[in-house]
Design goal:
The chain contains 23 helices and 9 strands. It is an alpha/beta fold. About 25% of the residues are buried.
């Protein structure tokens, strides 16, 4: 598959090259792939190896075609076709998704002029993303499309392995997305798109408990074909992988994502056999969910002083532990729901997966988003369409902390157009007005309005009020602890006059500045 530049960018492109369930996403039809069509497009396969595996029907179509294009000339059977290829697109593209769409657009532009035969390695119906794109576009066009049958690389694989794939239950996996596509699978697995050693490395590292050996299949059907059983540790070292390399795993003792399945089973056992777990409900677990969330936030706050890439083994271990406790709460609530037949943790994962795909059309669709602001705007538009809410404020959790709730309400109202020009000066004026009203009426109502006005100042300055107040509280606590040390005893602190308190406070602030 492909040429050097796209191979070097394969890690960046994996999210866009899943096949046959490797990445579940809604079918997308790129309107840019739909010019006026005059000709007929025939898609043929060149077989998995040399010219001898090209079918007579394909040979006939290639000979009679007024125009032919090869997806790649880097295929043993391509020597029979004197036609331009798209290898130059592979060399120039940064992502597989981009190059596949460019190829599809060019094919549709060419077929608008005359009949065209498009030739791909192997079979057009096995792991051919350009063919998928053309088929999707054809549904919106007056395009006469024919896809001829061809010998697939799978046929040579089954022949060499002497395996009946149906009887054995072999699952075909895309090597670019192995960790997700193979999740929960116990084998046998046939892994395609293992065209580079770094892809083999990714497969190798996907297992906590890997199989003992694997079978590497390379250049099957050619004089230099290789079928090598290798120790798992040597998977990415035995040979130099190329575009005719695949991998066979006869058995996977512990499947990818086994830890999640094991954890789900543990939650089930605890629910059945532990007296405390048996008596819990969604309502009784609410407090624990909140506590575990705050404990995660506490570790994140401690880590905030470090750069994201700066390692701190103790903090990172603590974060992993707290995230695990939070994960337990999520699995527990899903277990309660499954007991009443509502949903399972798999439904939770599937639902958020599909939602994220739909809400990222700039990644999985044809929407352009060059900055974070555009992404957020698109997200909110899609979310509004999904929810069909009556008010811009619908969907805001009322259980949010007060400052976070106020900030969310203000932001939603402003995004709906309920806002005033004048920038932060408008917010300053509101604070002054509300402060005057508090002086006249020091009630909870007026104090609440003053705090709400303060949140508006934070919003217009692009400051998170919850984080700002938390930081201020932590600064006060740090300084007060220093004051306690300076006082020497609780009695001395309680007996100090205002002048002494002010002096101690100044020393505490100075010590904080020196520490910074």
């Amino acid at each position: 598959m492909g040429a050097s530049r796209c191979r070097s960018h394969a890690r960046r492109a994996t999210r866009c090259v899943g096949f046959h369930g490797a990445l579940h996403r809604p079918a997308r039809r790129d309107r840019r792939l739909s010019p006026d069509v005059a000709g007929r497009l025939t898609i043929v396969g060149l077989g998995p190896a040399g010219p001898e595996l090209i079918t007579p029907q394909v040979t006939e179509r290639l000979a009679a075609a007024p125009m032919v294009r090869l997806r790649t000339a880097r295929h043993p059977a391509a020597v029979v076709v004197d036609a331009p290829s798209y290898d130059h697109v592979y060399e120039a593209a940064d992502r597989f998704a981009d190059l596949y769409e460019e190829i599809a657009r060019d094919l549709l532009a060419l077929v608008a002029v005359d009949d065209l035969v498009y030739a791909v390695p192997g079979s057009p119906l096995v792991l051919e993303r350009t063919v998928e794109l053309v088929r999707e576009a054809a549904a919106d066009m007056d395009l006469e499309l024919e896809i001829l049958p061809a010998v697939s690389f799978l046929d040579t694989v089954w022949s060499r392995l002497q395996v009946d794939p149906i009887e054995a239950g072999v699952r075909l996996i895309d090597g670019h997305v192995f960790a997700t596509a193979a999740a929960g699978q116990t084998g046998p697995l046939l892994v395609a798109h293992t065209h580079a050693n770094h892809v083999l490395s990714d497969v190798k590292l996907a297992f906590e408990e890997p199989p003992a050996t694997a079978v590497i299949l390379q250049r099957l059907g050619l004089p230099d074909e290789r079928i090598v059983e290798v120790a798992w540790a040597d998977l990415d070292r035995e040979l130099e992988a190329d575009h005719l390399t695949s991998l066979y795993l006869p058995e996977v003792a512990e499947p990818v994502a086994h830890e999640f399945a094991r954890f789900d089973e543990l939650v089930r056992i605890l629910r059945d056999e532990c007296p405390w777990d048996r008596k819990q409900t969604h309502a009784s677990l609410r407090r624990h969910l909140l506590e575990e969330t705050h404990e995660v936030l506490e570790v994140l706050d401690a880590r905030a002083a470090l750069a994201d890439t700066e390692p701190d083994p103790d903090l990172d271990d603590h974060l992993a532990e707290e995230l695990g406790d939070l994960l337990y709460q999520i699995y527990f609530h899903a277990r309660l729901a499954s007991e009443r037949g509502s949903f399972t943790v798999a439904d939770v994962a599937r639902g958020v997966h599909d939602k994220l795909v739909i809400r990222h059309p700039h990644v999985f669709g044809d929407v352009d988003a060059d900055d974070a602001e555009t992404v957020v705007s698109t997200w909110e538009e899609i979310k509004a369409q999904e929810k069909q809410r009556d008010s811009a404020l619908d969907g805001i959790p009322p259980s949010l902390p007060g400052l976070a709730l106020a900030a969310k309400i203000q932001k939603k109202a402003a995004s709906a157009g309920f806002d005033w020009d004048g920038g932060v000066e408008v917010a300053y004026a509101d604070v002054e007005t509300e402060l005057a009203e508090v002086r006249e009426d020091p009630s909870e109502h007026e104090v609440g309005d003053l705090l709400f006005a303060g949140v508006q100042v934070a919003r217009r300055l692009d400051v998170d009020p919850e984080a700002a107040l938390r930081s201020a509280a932590q600064r006060f606590a740090s300084r007060f602890r220093r004051v306690e040390v300076l006082a020497g005893s609780p009695e001395a602190l309680a007996a100090a006059d205002e002048n002494q308190l002010t002096a101690w406070w100044a020393v505490a602030k100075s010590a904080e500045s020196l520490a910074d």
